[in-house]
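Z., the sequence and structure:
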Amino acid sequence: MLTFGIAALAGCAPQATVGSSQSQIPAVAPGAARVWFLRGWDAPSGQGVVLAAAPVVFANGSPVGDIPIGSGFFRDFSPGTYNFTIQPFGLPTPQSTTLQLAAGTQTYVQAQWLASWQVGYPEADFSFAPNTFAILTMPPQVAEAYLPTLTYLGQR
């Protein structure tokens, strides 16, 4: 019981946000392109499993890292073309985001819970659990305003 209580209190400890960690974030390495991965608080979906899910993001089929709800992290990539996908936790879809990354740039992508009809499946009710995750680009102005509200997971 004591262990459970300590674990519960540890979960209440304040976590560093991206905004409070600005001084710890290194500059983009020369010749590299930075991609930020964000996941806000998913819209209510009627499916509790979504809140606990930490889907894995992939770049060209290789895992980049998992993204829990309310968090953000970054990874620096060599310039080039990358196809980003995410573990679906629902219906598998062909959804992906392909980006051409140039040296010195910062790009923002968001893990988002989507209704199945948005990726070509028939509409269904929540009890059927047809929804899935998708990885989508975000405008820099929106992402930069949103980053300070997320738990900072560092560089992956």
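Residues 1-13 have pLDDT under 50 and may be disordered. The CA atoms of residues 56 and 66 lie 4 Å apart.

Let me know what you think.
H.
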